[in-house]
TrEMBL record:
It comes from the Bacteria. Residues 2-67 form the HTH deoR-type domain. Keywords: DNA-binding, Transcription, Transcription regulation. This is Helix-turn-helix transcriptional regulator. The keyword Iron does not apply. Transmembrane segments: none annotated. The lineage of its organism: Bacteria, Bacillati, Actinomycetota, Actinomycetes, Pseudonocardiales. Coiled coil: none annotated.
């Protein structure tokens, strides 16, 4: 984060010619003491900055110096713009300052630098009840992201869930980090598809340009994909009514599998709950009977009655 902040500070100096510690603190959301340390760090790194004391003072670049960006390689430019993209943890002000750098980049690097800023989406929610497992980055992650940024097709080798390996040519559109897993979103001859990067067995760029829809938005596309996966993982929908003071408890237990509707005539709240099957969902909902009354389907009500009878028989 500090390296990102120092780059943002340098860009601000070039844009405004003079800055105070208070202005930097406000722009980059840090303390004035941190801002002063950052100015000192720039000086130590060899950037020609100096301070003017007293009223109207501040920090300036010696002789209005500007950093020569022509020495950046294409890879360095892309790496810098990954910091400015939606997946970055950098503060909004840092991202905004970094995005201004595109105006100073050599022309051949601009398109790829801008593409880098939108090539990656991070979705912190894991799938369902999957345990969080920290994994090293998949083998072909860098190659696939490079193909997304350069806008070239890839001949992809892929091993499916049954262990069968296939090959196809894909049009990479973006990379998504979902919890500990990585996914490639792309167009294929069969339509939009998503591949787990850890199942990719080979990735060879073809050099042919990607077919990218003009209105494609990676974040929006991933939301649609994730919603569809969630519906497949939890195909059953249960209808119920809930006491108003129980909705917070239901949301804590069920998370995004709960949809809250409108009020009923008796002052309760209509809800829809998604689950995998009737018995498993009845087991979850049995502990919420104080607030919840299931109205359908009948199979879930039957399982709840059976669970209740078993509890009474065992615990009296």
């Amino acid at each position: 984060m500090r390296a990102d902040r120092l780059m943002a500070l340098l860009l601000l100096l070039q844009q405004r010619e003079q800055l105070t510690a208070a202005e930097v603190a406000r722009e980059l959301e840090v303390s004035e003491r941190t801002a002063r340390r950052d100015f000192d760090a720039l000086a130590v790194a060899g950037v020609p900055v100096y301070s003017i004391q007293g009223r109207g003072g501040g920090w300036r670049l010696v002789g209005g110096a500007r950093t020569d960006l022509s020495g950046l390689t294409a890879g360095e430019a892309r790496a810098l713009f990954l910091v400015a993209g939606p997946a970055s943890a950098a503060a909004p002000a840092v991202k905004a300052a970094l995005r201004k750098l595109v105006r100073a980049l050599p022309e051949p690097f601009r398109a790829q630098a801008e593409a880098a800023a939108s090539s990656l989406v991070v979705d912190p929610q894991r799938w369902g009840s999957d345990r969080v497992r920290h994994r090293p980055p998949p083998r072909f992650l860098d190659e696939l992201q490079d193909a997304v940024i350069r806008g070239v097709q890839v001949r992809l080798g892929y091993v499916d869930g049954n262990g069968a390996e296939t090959g196809r040519t894909v049009h990479p559109l973006g990379i998504v980090a979902k919890g500990p897993s990585w996914y490639l979103v792309c167009d294929t001859d069969a339509g939009r598809r998503t591949f787990r990067v850890d199942r990719v067995s080979s990735a060879e760029p073809t050099g042919d340009p990607v077919r990218r829809p003009d209105d494609f938005d990676l974040a929006e596309s991933w939301r649609e994909i994730a919603d569809e996966v969630d519906r497949r993982r939890t195909p059953l929908e249960v209808r119920a009514t809930c006491a108003p003071d129980g909705t917070a408890r239901l949301r804590m237990v069920l998370g995004d599998r709960l949809e809250i509707g409108g009020p009923t005539t008796d002052g309760r709240v209509e809800v829809v709950i998604r689950g995998y099957n009737e018995y498993a969902l009845a087991g979850e909902l049995a502990g919420l009977v104080e607030w919840l009354e299931v109205t359908g389907p009948a199979g879930v009500r039957d399982h709840l009655a059976s669970i209740g009878s078993a509890l009474v028989e065992r615990y009296g």
